[in-house]
Amino acid sequence: MSEQVALLKEKGNVALQEGKFDEAITFYTQAIELDSSNHVLYSNRSAAYAKSGKYLQALEDAEKTVSLKPDWGKGYSRKGSALAYLGRFDESVKAYEKGLQHDPKNEQLKNGLADVRAQKTASLSNPFNSPDIFMKLANDPRTQKFLSDPDYLKLLQELRTNPQSLGTRLQDTRVLTTLSVLLGMSADMEEPMETEPMNPPEPPKPKPEPKPEKKEEDSLPPEKRKALEEKKLGNDAYKKKNFEEALKHYNTAVELDSTEIVYLLNIAAVYFEQKEYEKCISQCENAIEVGRENRADFKLIAKALARIGHAYKKMENWKQAKIYYEKSMSEHRTPEIKTLLSDIDKIIREQERKAYIDPVKAEEEKELGNQKYKSGDYPGAIKHYSEAILRNPDEPKYYSNRAACYTKLTAFDLGLKDCEKIVELDPKFIKGWIRKGKILQAMQQQGKALTAYQKAVELDPQNSEALEGYRSCAVSASSNPEEVRKRAMADPEVQSILRDPAMRLILEQMQSDPRALQDHLKNPDIAAKLQKLLESGLIAIH
Q1: Mind listing the pLDDT tens digit for each residue in 365-378?
Q2: Long-range contacts of range 337-345, CB-CB < 8 Å, 24 or more positions apart?
């Protein structure tokens, strides 16, 4: 049973890495049915559920993981992540904190805790942007009926994307009720609100003659107007790459209006262009602090966080860049930052992969794998061979050994995948071609198996294993009924081969002297034609 569980887990891991989340869930579920006390299986399935957007199921599996292995940090990380996706930020924080009690140095738990705290802050600044907003509204009788109204849904979307519009919407009783539900106020806490304007509307007056449009700046205090003028001057200098002049104007704008985040962000942009990345980061942090104090648009906060990410990216501090891109995404999601985050993830994974490479340890793992293989413990061998591959991913023999284990466990699809990797790394690795041929034969893919054995014979015409595989595969290919022969004779390529005088002589020679086959297979053109005839069933080799 343990072999079957290990194999299903491996298949689940492969599917998860390839983004086939439903497949991964199926494999992990089958493994759990065989071993319901394995905490790793629940943890992996929790990850698969989360990636497929099934957060409640992800939480259930995470809680099961923690109950089975209370001192394992990753279980708490899974639980914290699932709770955060569900918008249950306080519970998520507690899960991460409890995990850190068991594993204080766990970076995944530390980063998760920082991210969920940032998400919680973002949701508090705009309750309409809470991830679980629809769940809360659907579960409360006061707002449940509103969700069937398309106008109400449009109103919600406006408040989610533009929280500044809340002030103009407070006369709508639905908004006040929604706000009460989102802030956790019970029905008996609500007080009657004015639903009509305090002053009755005046009767309509004749429209006056249109006056020249008054600019918004004209209604601002003198200091703010002057600050805007300085910003414009700074922008002009920035476009001309006169950065010192731009800094002068932007700093003056800040002196005149210290509550405006935009001026601080512009200063940070100048530092970024000047490659003063530490100054850029410091300025962005100041901008975020000022922005939060003055309830700035969350998009500007996101912009500041993204710019910190850009600075860290330029400094090749990939992990810090990732943290700030994720924080930016928690404020406001954009395709550009999502793409950057994906790129950073790839760089971090590649760095971690390279840092993990150690050919000496790879050989040690291979030897441990060999011992497990000899004792018949194929899942155990796979574990060590997989570790050897991680330690030295460019060595084909480790994939070959693991493919042998997969073959023993009849996991031909995984074995074939390893064989493809072998011949990609080293096209002259003859054992890779032979192993590929055997797996394809077992999968009843005789034509492809012939091609694999053919490659092996080309590399070593004397290799008995390759020749035997080629012959046995050819016999299987030629044992089809007469109907196959009729279809073959209708093939123009087959007809052309049979009309070739040289090929007719070769076929006659092979009938009188079967050993001549080895000499003819050395010629790629002749070998290809013989293979075509074998596949068609017109000739057989015994």
Answers
A1: 999 999 999 999 99
A2: 337/302, 337/306, 337/309, 340/309, 340/313, 344/313, 344/318
Instruction: Report in angstroms the alpha-carbon separations of 313 from 163, 279, 296, 331, 465.
Output: 31, 14, 25, 19, 53
DSSP state of 315: T
Query: Residues of 453-467 as b/e, b for ≥16 C-beta within 10 angstroms?
Result: bbbbbbeeeebebbb
Give 196's DSSP letter: S
- How much helix, strand and coil, in percent to the nearest 5, is found in the chain? 75, 0, 25
Separation CA 336–CA 325 (nearest Å):
10
Task: Please give the pLDDT value at position 335.
Answer: 85
Position 486 scores a pLDDT of 63
Distance CA 272, CA 268 (A): 6
Give the residue carrying structure tokens 């519970």: 91
Write the pLDDT tens digit of every residue in 29-41: 999 998 999 999 9
Per the structure block, which two tokens stand in for 398? 């480790």
CB 450: neighbour CB atoms within 10 A? 24
- Say if CB 503 and CB 527 are below 8 A apart: no
Q: Give me the amino acid identity at 475.
A: V
Rg of the chain over Cα atoms, rounded to whole angstroms, equals 34
The pair of structure tokens assigned to 156 is 């919600």
Position 89: which residue type?
F
Residue 213: exposure state from Cβ atoms within 10 A (0-12, 13-18, ≥19): exposed
Q: Which of 376, 373, 374 is nearest to 402 (CA)?
A: 373
> Residues 137-148: pLDDT tens digits?
777 777 877 877
Minimal CA–CA distance to 174: which of 200, 198, 199, 148? 148
Question: Dihedral of the CA atoms 289, 290, 292, 295 (nearest 10)?
Answer: 180
Q: Would you state the structure tokens that stand for residue 129, as one six-digit string?
A: 């942007």
For residues 61 and 256, what is the distance between their CA atoms, to the nearest angstrom? 55
pLDDT along the chain (542 residues), means of 10: 81 84 91 91 91 85 93 91 82 91 86 77 65 70 77 76 66 74 53 35 51 55 88 92 92 91 93 93 92 87 93 93 90 86 88 89 95 92 93 94 91 92 94 93 83 90 89 65 60 81 82 73 79 68 55
CB 304 within 8 A of CB 337: no
Instruction: Name the amino acid, one letter, at 167.
Output: G
Dihedral sign from CA coordinates of 396, 397, 402, 403? positive
What is the C-alpha to C-alpha distance for residues 248 and 254, in angstroms, rounded to an integer? 10
What is the model's pTM?
Answer: 0.49
Give, as one character, the DSSP assignment of residue 203: P
What is the end-to-end Cα distance of the chain in Å, rounded? 41
Dihedral sign from CA coordinates of 493, 496, 501, 504: positive
H helix or E strand, kind and range, residue 163: none
